[in-house]
Amino acid sequence: MENKKLIKKIYAGKRISPREALELFDWDILELGKAADLRRKNSLKSSQVGFIIDRIINFTNVCEAACKFCAFHAKANRIEEYNLSMDEIFQKVEALIEAGGSQVMLQGGLHPDYTAGNYLTLVKSVKDRFPFVYLHSFSPAEAVHMARKSGITIDEVIVALKSAGLDSMPGASDLLVDRIRKQVSPRKITRDEWCEVIRTLAAHGMKSSATMTYGMGETNEERIDHLTVIRDIQDETKNLRAFIPWSFSPANTLMEDIVPATGMTYLKIVAISRIFLDNIPYIQAGWLTEGLKLAQIALSFGANDMGGVLTEEVVVKATGINTRTNIDELVDIIKNAGKDPVQRDSEYKVIRSFK
User: Fold this and answer.
1) How is residue 340 annotated by DSSP?
2) Domain containing 41 — which CATH number?
3) Are the CB atoms for 292 and 329 separated by under 8 Å?
4) Which residue range is the domain that position 27 belongs to?
5) What distance in Å separates the CA atoms of residue 32 and residue 7, rounded to the nearest whole number?
6) How far apart are CA 37 and CA 41, in angstroms?
7) Residue 345, domain member (yes or no)
8) Is residue 113 in some structural domain?
9) What is the DSSP string of 248-282?
10) What share of the chain is helix, strand, coil (3-state, %, to 5)?
11) What is the pLDDT of residues 316-349, one digit of tens each?
12) Residue 12, domain member (yes or no)
């Protein structure tokens, strides 16, 4: 039975503790969804659900991190090693612009031969040629990688990236639990290093986000630990625009023996995130990994953004998931969920409404 005292606390819009958040995993799924949707409604005063036309450009799949949960890096032996040329990258950006897109996500992992100079050249080249494109690119792990390879500080990396034309950086968080990180991505950054990058971005006026990759053997307590790190850093920096949870897709990875998380677990994660992360306005429904139908249901469990149309995506595709969508489909999905669809920009400003 749900804790009536906790129900009243949530419905009153009060902050809940990590211990109380843990209780929510045992709630009836419908009661949890109802509480999360009310939390969204009361805090945002809007039924709008946005999406953006963007493109992920994975400019290389050579990555020394070799995370066990990744099927895309070259050492996974699933995809041939490659490095895109600048002309190839320009062509992809031009195609995005022709499709009415506005945001480019340059991502490439931890290339063993790339220093900060390689990433800076990439940013400056794209920004010089396409000055009106919004570059929401790289990740905290890549920022730390740049610093290490170039013998400079994280602060110097962020200053240089901003000067070159980077607008913001996705806060790819995986799971901010060092026990899990040591098991699945020991060559990647620690929880504290992730926090340092977010603080540095905030210090230089560059926004970020946070993600959550769950279903990698963590406990419910560790899931709440992850959310607590995010809530605390947001209290401190006010720098995270959005939170994006998604389930780990084990196919074609070194963790194929893990049973994938269920759709029910996904809806619980979305709802608990909405209730617990009371300082982050946008919770994204992960249609790419969870499928369009489940993402639509998530819009009634506290989610209020559909992310990007993603005119190109190859990392998740490497696990065998090949979900695709378009503007018309997203508009219909949002409307049929009883919400108001809007196209937004990278700063979550509405640029087009759909009646």
Assistant:
1) E
2) 3.20.20.70
3) yes
4) 17-337
5) 9
6) 6
7) no
8) yes
9) ---TTSTTTTSPPPPHHHHHHHHHHHHHH-TT--E
10) 45, 15, 40
11) 343 333 445 688 889 999 999 999 999 999 999 9
12) no
Q: Which two structure tokens, joined as six digits, stand for 50? A: 């946005």
Lowest mean pLDDT among 34-48, 120-134, 263-277: 34-48
pTM: 0.91
Scan for tokens 């913001």, then name that residue.
168
Buried b (16+ CB within 10 A) or exposed e, 215-238: bbebebebbbbbbbbbbebbeebe
Q: What whole-number distance in Å separates Cα of residue 117 and Cα of residue 101?
A: 27
Q: Which residues, at least 6 apart from 77, have a Cβ–Cβ distance to it below 8 Å? A: none
Domain count, the chain: 1
Nearest to 258 by CA among 268, 273, 248, 272: 248
> What are φ and ψ of residue 26, in 5° steps?
-95, 0
Query: One-letter amino acid identity for 31?
Result: E
Judge whether 10 lies within some domain: no
Burial status of residue 293 (CB atoms within 10 A of its CB: 0-12, 13-18, 19 or more): exposed
- Cα 24 from chain centroid? 23
Q: Return the structure tokens found at 264.
A: 């029910």
Contacts of 221 (CB under 8 A, 6+ apart): 22
